[in-house]
Specification:
alpha/beta, Rossmann fold, pyruvate-formate lyase- activating enzyme, OB fold (Dihydrolipoamide Acetyltransferase, E2P), 6-stranded parallel beta sheet, 14 helices, 37% helix, globular, binds 5'-deoxyadenosine, binds iron/sulfur cluster, iron-sulfur, Methylthiotransferase_N
């Protein structure tokens, strides 16, 4: 490394986020120099795999890359391509390897190109080993705990010819006030906590996202105040298990208390949150949901399985009966709420009888929408060591039966709003038909209706004219 560059790096302040702003400036100088050499502006592309948490993290990556002087592009032919990876199921990993294979050819053609990898997959040591061996053209690897250090790592990658790797096992650190580039002007995700302490037996998340850490309520409120002054109307509070928010704060605050504080902010028109673990869903939360119209009429309440035996093995801490009672309680306090869920089929030891219990819950609850997953063995989780893995053909058959059932039920459920007038927040122009706009109802269902780009980010009263299974066609009133 050049001597004066090394001297500059040594001058970096220790405290955060000042240190990262320092590195962002340095990255900008380096990118400018590279850009002069290339005789064109340098571009970047952030590719997101996985959940809403990753989507929010990607907005942070974009904020930093823009701060470093790169220009956003949506092409993997860009000069800096970074994959924000997911590892919750095996096919998420396979996708990343497949796409890395094609990136190699792109990089061969572009001497300025750099490739970064971050996110959950990078927290697994065998993944990093595989990349070092089979994909040595990757320039930068970091994990979930040190994403706040991206500006600093970017500088190291820009000045190093070999692969820069920085993956931490865990952290108790939360760095506030880093730049973010939001994808939507009118809605935004807001992290309220990181990590998960539940260790559901099939799930890799606690190993790759670390222990639960809650942000201070004051930091969350101040971020939302800022978002509102920037024009945001809808916030989505994000955490792996929002119902256990605040338990480990110096001055504990419940999730319900946090929601009330956010509902009191003028200008916040809609509040969503994800994800709720049934075992921690309090009566206080149900009351608050019923009391504030700003809190959206939607609850995502992962079931995973309807069999109490399987639930016990999964370490979920509720039975089928307790789950059903909870659903009853919620429906009494928040009439017409839309319930959605996650279900895993083919968990080790799942018998036909266990599967029938899952079907039974599906028929009783009548979800508006269900995310169905085939069990995926994740190395290092307790379930991966179970011997009674269910044969593939049996799993496939159960999966298809479940899918058919949930599709029929959700189409009937969604249809219950037909003919009513609903408030819709317009999200964008319809991609297939530009004479239409697409908006979202409070219960998360999409509505397409005639409109134009000027409506984006506004609330409209829309008459729901036809139901197309998962969405509506409507007309503004
Ligand atoms: N196999 C299949 N699905 C899984 N999920 C988490 N881990 C696994 C796994 N090993 C599902 C759960 C969770 C959702 C985000 O992903 O249903 O709620
Ligand atoms: Fe995984 Fe369970 Fe934590 Fe959800 S609550 S992230 S399923 S361990």
């Amino acid at each position: 490394m050049e001597k004066n560059l090394l001297e500059k790096i040594n001058q970096a302040p220790e405290e955060e986020p000042a240190r990262q702003y320092f590195f962002m400036k340095l990255a900008k100088e380096l990118v400018e120099a590279k850009s002069k050499e290339a005789k064109r502006p340098l571009t970047f592309d952030v590719v997101t795999f996985g959940c809403q948490m990753n989507a929010r993290d990607s907005e942070k990556l974009v904020g930093i890359l823009e701060g470093a002087g790169y220009i956003k592009s949506e092409s993997e032919e860009s000069d800096f391509v970074i994959y924000n990876t997911c590892t919750v199921r095996e096919n998420a990993n396979l996708k990343v390897y497949g796409r890395l294979g094609s990136l190699k050819r792109v990089k061969r053609r572009n001497p300025h190109m750099m490739i970064g990898l971050c996110g959950c997959m990078m927290q697994e040591s065998q993944v990093v080993e595989k990349i070092k061996k089979s994909y040595p053209f990757v320039d930068l690897i970091f994990g979930t705990h040190n994403i706040y250090k991206f500006a600093e790592l970017l500088v190291y990658a820009l000045v190093n010819n070999s692969m820069v790797i920085d993956v931490w096992k865990d952290t108790d650190r939360i760095v506030e006030n880093l730049p973010v580039d939001r994808k939507y002007s009118f809605k935004s995700g807001v992290n309220i906590m990181f990590g998960c302490n539940n260790f559901c037996s099939y799930c890799i998340v606690p190993y790759v996202r670390g222990r639960e850490r809650s942000r201070n309520p004051e930091d969350i409120i101040s971020e939302i105040n800022q978002l509102v002054s920037d024009g945001v109307k809808e916030v989505m509070l994000l955490g792996q298990n929002v119902n256990s928010y605040g338990k480990n704060l110096e001055y504990p605050v419940t999730f319900a208390e946090l929601l009330e504080k956010i509902a009191a902010i003028e200008g916040v028109e809609r509040i969503r949150f994800m994800t709720s673990h049934p075992k921690d869903l309090s009566d206080e939360l149900i009351r608050v949901m019923g009391r504030y119209p700003k809190i959206c009429n939607h609850l995502h309440l992962p079931l995973q399985s309807g069999s109490s035996k399987i639930l016990k093995d999964m370490n979920r801490h509720y039975t089928k009966e307790e789950y059903l009672l909870l659903v009853d309680k919620i429906r009494k306090s928040v009439p017409d709420i839309s319930l959605t869920t996650d279900i895993i089929v083919g968990y080790p030891g799942e018998t036909e009888k266990d599967f029938e219990q899952t079907m039974d819950v599906v028929r009783k609850v009548r979800y508006d929408s269900v995310f169905t997953f085939i069990y995926s063995k994740r190395t290092g989780t307790p379930a991966a060591a179970r011997e009674e893995q269910v044969p593939k053909d049996v799993v496939k058959d159960r999966f298809n039966r479940l899918l058919k059932e949930v599709q029929t039920i959700s189409a009937e459920q969604i249809n219950r709003f037909l003919g009513t007038v609903q408030e819709v927040l317009v999200e964008g122009v319809n991609e297939q038909d530009p004479s239409l706009v697409t908006g979202r109802m409070t219960n998360n269902v999409l509505v397409h209706f005639p409109g134009d780009v000027s409506m984006i980010g506004t609330f409209r009263q829309v008459h729901l004219e036809t139901c197309k299974g998962f969405y509506y066609m409507g007309k503004e009133r």
